[in-house]
Specification:
Largest sheet: 9 strands, mixed
Strand content: 15-25%
Shape: globular
Helix content: 40-55%
Distance between the termini: 31 Å
Number of strands: 11
Strand order of the largest sheet: 5-4-3-6-2-1-9-10-11
Order of helices and strands: HHEHHHHEHEEEHEEEHHEHEHEH
Structural class: alpha/beta
Radius of gyration: 18 Å
Mean pLDDT: 92
Length: about 290
């Protein structure tokens, strides 16, 4: 029996109990994707496909870039320069996405690490609203045209830029590997951005040292995260590297592609086969 089959047959409520206990103990890391916010209507794009559609409203895209936000952004950068990509990303997320009750719930927990895997910065807003001052954020950044030899920037709870040593003192570190609209509109978005990152991702230099230290021994819980793209799977795999050997994901098992199912099996990610909204409500109730 394969690991994927075992995970599929496991009692989802029992797995949710394990996740709730792990969150309370600080031994599991929430890896929050745009699917959490997409449970409600918002004006901003809440999937890579929706972001690609937004770019298509701004300019005519070649066939190869349609439906792929990273290729679309690369085409825009090639034809209209990087500043246009940044301006249009800011426009896409200008209306803001209100944090969900689940974001607010997470923000109250003294978790050592939270990963927010989308650009809308809902988790940042929830932490701001929590009134806590003991958290910091590290965002992935593009190195295109900025003249900086680094892969990320740190910010304190007020949104001010800070040094890694300051962020290391925080109880909770929010990691936004792809960047985000807040606090400073850093975006890792074009094919070229990711090609550059992926040249070094195996040796982990694009992953902040503080993230690498905090993930040691912890498991990850994927919530509202799409894994239908190889780039997203690679990034998740590298962020999980050298952490625990037990992880979880709320997914619809019947809709998993072969590549998605293989990814869960290879990474020992237990599939919690429940509707996302039901799973989030159960976690908050626990």
């Amino acid at each position: 029996m394969t690991a994927m089959t075992t995970a599929t047959l496991a009692n989802p409520q029992a797995l949710l109990g394990d996740v709730a206990a792990g969150f309370r103990a600080g031994t599991l890391v929430p890896f929050v994707g745009p699917g959490v916010s997409a449970l409600e209507e918002h004006g901003a794009p809440l999937s890579p496909e929706e972001l690609a559609d937004f770019f298509a409203t701004k300019t005519a895209l070649p066939k190869r870039a349609k439906g792929n936000c990273w290729s679309a952004a690369q085409y825009i950068e090639s034809t209209r320069f990087r500043d246009t990509v940044t301006v249009w990303m800011q426009e896409a997320f200008a209306a803001g996405v209100a944090p969900s009750p689940f974001h607010h719930w997470l923000a109250q927990l003294p978790l050592p690490l939270i990963v927010d895997a989308w650009y809308a910065s809902e988790m940042h807003a929830a932490l701001l609203a929590s009134g806590r001052g003991d958290w910091a954020q590290v965002q992935g950044i593009t190195r295109a045209g900025i003249g900086e030899d680094r892969w990320f920037r740190f910010y304190d709870a007020t949104g001010a830029a800070c040094e890694a040593d300051t962020a290391a003192q925080a109880t909770t570190l929010l990691y936004t590997p792809h960047g985000g609209i807040a606090p400073a509109a850093n975006f890792l978005i074009t094919d070229a951005d990711y090609v550059e990152v992926l040249t070094e991702i195996d040796i982990q230099t694009p992953i902040p040292e503080e993230v690498r230290q905090r993930r040691t021994g912890l498991g990850f819980v994927f919530l509202g995260c799409p894994f239908n793209d190889q780039l997203l799977r690679i990034y998740a795999r590298q962020i999980m590297k050298r952490s625990s050997d037990r992880h979880y994901a709320v997914v619809d098992v019947a809709k998993l592609t072969r590549n998605e199912a293989r990814f869960l099996e290879e990474q020992n990610i237990a599939a919690i086969d429940l509707p996302l909204g039901e799973a989030l409500a159960a976690l908050m109730a626990a």
